[in-house]
């Protein structure tokens, strides 16, 4: 059964707000302990404990064993997530939350254009169209306006 797009959009918008809040929280933790890498480690550790608890509460703990048979490339998401957390908590004092978020979204949109075009990891390929390029350029304009 297809999921309603409106719910997904609201969910992602709330997640986006959480990312905007996460960056200054993690940055403040990094300043408090004098280590941006340490703060990223703590952030992931707390998130890990929460996710394990929720996974077990939902009865999906046994499904974690399936990761042993997964292609190794599919296990790299955590590396990318760790880099994201560290990069944002390192950069938020330099850029501010608005510019950091705008640049983050620009990077996501640029990569998404390529990912959609190629159709990697079983996703349906989608053409790079003028409206999609204009959307990326508008976000790039937002980056400029947020900073200068």
SSE pattern: HHHHH
Shape: globular
Strands, count? 0
Roughly what percent helix?
A: over 70%
- Average pLDDT works out at 91
Indicate the radius of gyration in whole angstroms. Answer: 18 Å
Work out the helix count: 5
> Largest sheet at a glance?
none
Protein name: Inner membrane protein YdcZ
Keywords: Membrane, Transmembrane, Transmembrane helix
GO cellular component, one term: plasma membrane
Pfam families: DMT_YdcZ (PF04657)
Quick description:
One of its GO terms (cellular component) is plasma membrane. By secondary structure, the chain is mainly α.
Walkthrough of the structure:
With 148 residues, this protein is mainly α. The protein has helices at residues 5-33, 36-57, 77-95, 97-118, 130-147. It has one domain. The protein is built from five helices and no strands. This is Inner membrane protein YdcZ. The chain crosses the membrane at residues 36-58, 70-89, 95-116, 128-146. Keywords: Membrane, Transmembrane, Transmembrane helix. One of its GO terms (cellular component) is plasma membrane.
Observed structural traits:
148 residues, mainly alpha, 5 helices, 0% strand, globular
